[in-house]
Amino acid sequence: MGAHHRHHERWEEGEGEWRPEEEGKGGPGRGLFVLDKVEKVVESEGGQVRVVRGQPWPPAYVVPEAPWQHGGWSTCREGLMHIGFITMEPKTLFVPQYIDSNLILFVQRGEVKVGWIHKAELVEKKLKMGDVLHIDAGSTFYMVNTGKGQRLQVICSIDASDSAGFGPYQSFYLGGASKQTSVLGGFDPKILVTAFNTTYDELARIFMVKAGGPIVHYTEESGRSEEDGRGDKGDVGDKGRENEPWRQVGRGDEDESSNELWTWSSWRKLMGKFGGASSNAAQVNKKKSSDKTVRAPEPYNIFDHDPSFRNDYGWSVSIDKHEYEPLGHSDIGVYLVNLTAGSMMAPHVNPRATEYGVVLGGEGVIQVVFPNGTLAMSAKVLVGDVFWIPRYFPFAQVASRAGPFEFFGFTTSARRNRPQFLVGASSVLRTILGPELAAGFGVPEEELSEVVKAQKEAVILPSFPEKEPRAIRQVAKE
Fold this sequence. Notes:
Elements (H helix, E strand, L loop, with lengths): L5 H7 L21 E2 L2 E7 L2 E6 L28 E8 L3 E8 L3 E7 L2 E7 L2 E7 L3 E5 L5 E5 L6 E8 L11 E3 L15 H8 L3 H8 L7 E3 L27 E3 L13 E3 H8 L7 H13 L8 E2 L7 E3 L2 E6 L7 H4 L2 E7 L4 E6 L5 E7 L2 E6 L5 E7 L4 E4 L5 E5 L5 E7 L8 E2 L6 H5 L2 H7 L3 H8 L7 E2 L8 H8 L1
Antiparallel strand pairs: 1-24, 2-3, 3-4, 4-11, 5-10, 5-12, 5-13, 6-9, 6-11, 7-8, 7-10, 9-16, 14-15, 17-18, 18-19, 19-26, 20-25, 20-27, 20-28, 21-24, 21-26, 22-23, 22-25
């Protein structure tokens, strides 16, 4: 079993939780590039959604007179992304909705069934740990925690450039959900009765139900009707829905009146009336759906693919639109890195993208350097911390000696990132080594060559020596 598969075992044992707990915590915090501000966007008995907001560059709290700024940079949204954390208790449903941002979902723990609209048809996929799935902005979707007695944890990227709301994103719920009522419920009853071609009583049974929040407890009937016959096919066209009831989570008794319970089939029946479609139109739509089977892209599992790079000191996986085409729709890449105890990702630069990371396991240090060659941040990060690195800024990640350091994240480009490593066997310094580089450092070429070629490893480097050489310590003191 490969090293990157051990992540499964760790989460199956129930280790690791997301650390950020404080809402509204902002400012520089522990480091300029560690994101500490966490917002609870959804709070339900069945789960919650927390969002760590991305930081525009340069940050608002950096004064214009900072020595590394030249010409008074203005704050911009380039490379801005928010990171969402979805937690769902066992047997829960995240009600149908659409949002104003592209989503990239990563299943960190548990199993989930995701249904969404793809090319005007409903598609359902079952996702497991390590799966990555893209959902377009404006595409209606829902999520069901299908893990047996297991809490579901999903990390997602939220495209901040698409969001037009006051929050990090804006949800438009189709199913009623406590304070977040169905967007259809905002219309005048006469409009809805006419549009659905139904009665006021029928509408009231749907729109007047009290719910416990956007994430509700969910129960499936033990059997399905013969007409449904969908089974577990993954892709679904216009073949009907199973009669799956879901129960609202409220403060009252579970055996309250029957209007506290409704079924997917009743909702679908009502929605089928929307627009007053004639029987002829319905037959035409049915014929179209039977002529063509809708096939949505399969999820991409990080753990089922070989690492992009591996040596004795760690491995990394990088996914772009060439490996998983849907990433190109939102222009976002995905990566996962695992460093052995004490090892480090060599100092490098992302020339095409801003990078966001979430610590999944272990602990380490992130160092970032300003354009003028001064240290911007050296921060210790633990499980659950979110960090970000602006495009072009040099940085390095170092694992603690206590154990492996694992982090997952997103980049703001779906193209091949091709990071430029500044140190190591495959570094820019090694490639450009010559009299010009030596003159730039002001040292003889032979002396520079000896230093540049001393490191035999590339990308992921061995741990620091236990004790610094005396010569280096002496230079540091001077």
